[in-house]
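Q: What residues go here?
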């Protein structure tokens, strides 16, 4: 088979996208596509049509045609099989199959076409492989993002800790009646106060970045502002304000963030000489009428050595997975040892782990379309009434060994119809009028409350309540991987270690 070109065109033969797999001028391909509608016989059902030089193999896609142009010597059965694959790929990127959608996704479609055909010959690929190849997933990028998020989290924790220390010093200074001086570590100025001082130095507003100072008369001791202690929140805000004025970007703990960042930014635990993080991200899409469309679990183990005497270690893992999770070690990890003993250690036993760095040593991936393997199933039942819809939404914990924390189920609502009338509710709910969303919150879902429901009424149509988005996190691994022991390579001496396990949602929706 020699495939000359693949194209998507409208009924009149106008090319929306075209990918040529052999050397061909633009005028040549436009002429071939323009001639295609004229060659079709009305009233007859065909899948191909021929001219003296080429063969058109085509399939209607609503108002459009997906079209392959081949030589007349090509195998028509192979042509039809390739055409079917092209016809399955296009709806993956264009749901509405309109001309505008084809134009918007032109580059994605061309990349997918290149995975199907190379130099005019069909590649041995299926739809799932094409999707994987075009995603261009990078492990190194994920490691870099994870390292950056960890560094940002540690920096924020350090700033909060320093703010608390400054506030505590102020309180102690107030109780003892002594002054407290602040060196200009976070700026070019210094603040000083003393109960016996004749002047109090206070900043005055200035248009420049560097503040100016004036001398004002002091008030009697005990009533002066220099020793007046504000609220904890005010002190912290003042400290954060100083950092922001000097170019430091500080994210408030009250700011709402996306589920991925929120789960990845959980408070850091006290870290021992060796700290191990086990992280899993859940991506899931399920249908509103039941059935799991796709589910993917991506996991990673990261080792951080905080004490150089523990650089040459090995980590003992326990794999209780029964689902068929795919495991992959880092290239610098001894893969043979891991496969036989489940020990994670570097290939070169003389080489230590880098100090104060999160090193990804093991990652895993699990995919399924079996709905019994979902962590949490959500069923939403909108029932139209004369005045709107009665909606019943329920959850069911499908994996009783898991404990899901901070669960939120976000149900979109129609706009401009007011707040819903909520009936029975397991847990708590909140109506967000700005986003037109009902947020159903449950602190914990485990084996003791593995099912629950929420009922409400509101004007609208059943389609208004989708997609439903779910967020949660768990301190247990879905794939049931555990860390059992950490030892030095020399002497097998046990090493005290700290660990974190985080399983959280990256995307979890019912569409």
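A:
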């Amino acid at each position: 088979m020699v495939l000359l070109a693949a194209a998507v065109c409208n009924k009149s033969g106008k090319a929306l996208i075209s990918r040529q797999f052999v050397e061909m001028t633009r005028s040549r391909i436009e002429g071939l596509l323009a001639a295609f509608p004229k060659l079709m016989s009305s009233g007859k059902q065909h899948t191909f049509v021929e001219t003296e030089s080429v063969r058109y193999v085509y399939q209607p896609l609503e108002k459009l045609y997906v079209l392959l142009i081949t030589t007349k010597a090509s195998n028509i059965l192979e042509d039809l099989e390739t055409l079917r694959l092209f016809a399955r790929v296009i709806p993956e990127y264009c749901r509405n199959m309109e001309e505008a959608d084809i134009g918007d996704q032109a580059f994605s479609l061309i990349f997918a076409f290149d995975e199907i055909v190379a130099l005019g010959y069909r590649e041995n690929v299926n739809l799932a492989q094409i999707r994987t190849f075009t995603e261009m997933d990078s492990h190194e990028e994920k490691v870099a993002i994870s390292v950056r998020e960890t560094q940002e989290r540690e920096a924020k924790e350090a700033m909060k800790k320093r703010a608390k220390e400054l506030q505590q010093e102020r309180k102690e200074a107030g109780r003892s009646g002594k002054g407290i001086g602040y060196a200009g570590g976070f700026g070019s100025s210094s603040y000083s106060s003393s109960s016996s001082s004749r002047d109090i130095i206070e900043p005055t507003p200035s248009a420049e970045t560097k503040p100016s100072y004036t001398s004002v008369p002091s008030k009697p001791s005990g009533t002066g502002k220099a020793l007046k202690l504000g609220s904890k929140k005010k002190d912290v805000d003042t400290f954060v304000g100083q950092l922001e004025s000097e170019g430091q970007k500080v994210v408030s703990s009250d700011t709402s963030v996306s589920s991925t960042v929120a789960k990845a930014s959980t408070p850091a635990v006290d870290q021992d000489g060796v700290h191990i993080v086990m992280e899993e991200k859940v991506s899931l899409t399920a249908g509103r009428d039941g059935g799991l469309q796709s589910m993917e679990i991506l996991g990673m183990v990261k080792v951080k050595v905080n004490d150089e005497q523990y650089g040459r270690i090995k980590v003992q893992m326990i794999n209780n997975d029964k689902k068929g999770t795919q495991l992959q070690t880092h290239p610098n990890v001894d893969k043979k040892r891991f496969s036989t003993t489940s020990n994670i250690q570097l290939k070169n036993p003389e080489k230590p782990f880098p100090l104060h760095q999160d090193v990804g040593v093991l990652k895993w991936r699990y995919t399924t379309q079996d709905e019994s393997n979902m962590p949490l199933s959500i069923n939403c039942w909108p029932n139209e009434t004369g005045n709107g819809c009665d909606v019943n939404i329920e959850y069911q914990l499908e994996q009783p060994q898991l404990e899901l924390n901070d669960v939120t189920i976000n149900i979109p609502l129609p706009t401009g119809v007011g707040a819903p009338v909520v009936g029975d509710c397991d847990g708590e709910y909140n109506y967000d009028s700005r986003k037109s969303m009902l947020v159903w919150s449950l602190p914990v879902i485990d084996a003791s409350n593995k099912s629950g429901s929420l009922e409400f009424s509101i004007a609208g149509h059943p389609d208004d309540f989708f997609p439903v988005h779910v967020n949660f996190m768990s301190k247990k691994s879905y794939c049931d991987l555990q860390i059992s022991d950490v030892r030095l390579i020399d002497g097998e001496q046990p090493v005290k270690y700290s660990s974190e396990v985080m399983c959280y949602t990256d995307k979890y929706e019912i569409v």
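A: Context that may help when evaluating the design: The first helix runs from residue 26 to 39. The CA atoms of residues 281 and 504 lie 5 Å apart.
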